[in-house]
């Protein structure tokens, strides 16, 4: 979806320096120092307007969260929300991450969230899907042993593809649903803005949680 232009977006982003990270690649291996604690770190790739990660940070004060979003006008909205609640355990990174190993060290993360990622529907673009084997192997490097990946999507074809990639790599599936919001899984309680919109249209949300 095309985002509406925001005036002086660069200047406005700069006012939220307390909640943002200027250069994520320079933080590789030292993210815990940014939070000044030894708590587990979770990353959301493509956080949109921030609702999901902010809520996670609210209900899990004993965890740290890094919310990643590449579009400046979108992450601005997320930063505005974060500033309103003033949580110490969440930071935002404006970036389009193509390789998580450039930003995070081996075993540095406890988990990764992939919420409503771009489906890249054309077959020739399959390698761009964030659940492609190429990406799954990178997640495996930066997530510690027994760490998790959670994936939500409204796109049935992408979900089928993703389950195939997960199984092909031998990852253990812990939770699985083709209708998350009519399941008993707690992941239905923390939603994204996009998720709220589509559940309002009675669209089933596909969900899987697996160990890498």
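Q: What amino acid sequence fits the structure above?
A:
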């Amino acid at each position: 979806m095309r985002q509406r232009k925001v005036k002086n977006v660069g200047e406005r982003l700069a006012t939220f320096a307390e909640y943002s990270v200027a250069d994520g690649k320079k933080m590789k291996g030292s993210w815990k120092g940014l939070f000044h604690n030894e708590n587990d770190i979770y990353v959301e790739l493509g956080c949109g307007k921030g609702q999901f990660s902010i809520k996670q940070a609210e209900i899990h004060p004993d965890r740290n969260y890094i919310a990643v979003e590449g579009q400046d006008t979108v992450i601005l909205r997320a930063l505005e929300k974060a500033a309103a609640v003033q949580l110490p355990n969440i930071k935002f990174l404006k970036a389009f991450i193509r390789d998580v190993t450039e930003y995070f060290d081996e075993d540095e993360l406890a988990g990764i969230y992939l919420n409503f990622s771009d489906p890249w529907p054309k077959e020739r673009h399959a390698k761009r899907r964030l659940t492609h084997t190429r990406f799954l192997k990178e997640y495996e490097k930066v997530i510690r042993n027994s760490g998790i990946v959670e994936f939500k999507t409204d796109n049935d074809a992408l979900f089928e593809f993703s389950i195939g990639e997960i199984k092909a790599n031998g990852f253990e599936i812990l939770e699985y649903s083709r209708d998350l919001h009519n399941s008993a899984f707690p992941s239905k309680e923390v939603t994204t803005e996009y998720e709220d919109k589509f559940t309002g249209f009675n669209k089933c949300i596909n969900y899987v949680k697996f160990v890498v």
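Q: And what stands out in the fold?
A: The beta strands are 20-21, 41-45, 64-69, 90-94, 109-115, 143-153, 172-177, 206-211.
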